[in-house]
Automatic annotation (TrEMBL):
InterPro entries: WD-F-box_domain-protein, WD40/YVTN_repeat-like_dom_sf, WD40_PAC1, WD40_repeat_CS, WD40_repeat_dom_sf, WD40_rpt. Keywords: Repeat, WD repeat. This is SPG16 protein. WD repeats lie at residues 25-66, 67-108, 109-150. Pfam families: WD40. The keyword Repeat applies. GO terms for cellular component: axonemal central apparatus.
Length: 164
């Protein structure tokens, strides 16, 4: 199974390798920038130009939670490997750690000076990695929302970062 997000304001779930569309998610009001499965595979998180992050329950075939709090488009989203936290990165220069159980923002991470373009949890860890248009990468502690280290060295916008 693969999931795609598009400028059509929706996501689609595809069966591989045949390519049949299994499910479509409608509800965002602008382009989709990211999508990530919950580790259990039962839910999906999406991020959008409409400034929201949405949680979708695949068995219910619909959105069960809309997380609001970013001031500009949300560029990326990531689900923690334990399944209780979601992270989002926004063009408003912030990232957020959302507690899915309480349906609230746990931390707003501030420190980048420009759009935060990607966000990812280190598996089975409290460490979060962000990349930014300010030409930096930052490591954050998702338990506190505080920066751990910032890496400088890019001459242009850093669009994505990942762990091995």
């Amino acid at each position: 199974i693969a999931v795609t997000g598009s400028d059509e304001h929706l996501w689609k779930m595809w069966a591989l390798p045949g390519g049949n569309i299994l499910m479509t998610g409608e509800g965002h009001t602008d382009w989709l920038s990211g999508c990530c499965f919950r580790p259990s595979g039962t839910q999906l998180v999406t991020s959008s130009g409409d400034t929201t992050v949405r949680i979708w329950d695949l068995s219910r075939r619909g959105c069960i939670l809309t997380l609001k709090g970013h001031a500009r488009a949300v560029q990326d989203c990531s689900w923690h490997s334990w399944g209780d936290l979601v992270a989002s990165a926004s063009m408003d220069s912030t990232s957020k750690i959302w507690d899915v159980n309480s349906e609230r923002c746990r931390y707003t991470m501030r420190g980048h000076k420009d759009s935060v373009n990607s966000i990812e949890f280190l598996p089975f860890s409290s460490t979060v990695l962000t990349s930014s248009a300010d030409k930096t990468l930052s490591l954050w502690d998702s338990r506190t929302g505080l920066p751990v280290h910032t890496f400088h060295g890019h001459l242009h916008s850093c669009n994505h970062a990942t762990f091995n």
